[in-house]
């Protein structure tokens, strides 16, 4: 059984991931969020722990990441300042597997007018810095670079790796969750 922590568990994409993992007998979920009352675990059929904490507080991260196998980060807003504390907590707890959701364009891989428009997003420098920090962390990481997200339920996506041109402009949260709902990821 893999111990998987979802940091930012009440976010829209993380709620979809929780829904996809709720019956996976190979997973013990830890849901990390600021206000535990905001999440209903009654329909989760796997072992689940709710950790009420603040992702800006090192002690909360240290405690929540203890005994985890996989750390999945789906926070919102400026993200670069979360990388070092999460990395520190992972190192302290001997956890090496990180999946971090950022966004498309962090490698200037989106061609054409859409790429120009996307590159003008005010949060792009922060996302690029977060990617740089993750890449230099020494962790076994996957950076998810989803396109602009939709709440539609369909699952349909393709993957690219750093250095390949990006395809598409919109992806569903269900597709993002589907990509990494396997506990082996």
TrEMBL record:
Domain NAD(P)-binding: 8-179
Gene3D superfamilies the record matches: NAD(P)-binding Rossmann-like Domain
Name recorded for this polypeptide: NAD(P)-binding domain-containing protein
PANTHER family: FLAVIN REDUCTASE (NADPH)
Source organism superkingdom: Bacteria
Gene Ontology molecular function, alphabetical: biliverdin reductase [NAD(P)H] activity; riboflavin reductase (NADPH) activity
One Pfam entry name: NAD_binding_10
InterPro entries per UniProt: NAD(P)-bd_dom, NAD(P)-bd_dom_sf, Polyketide_Oxido-like
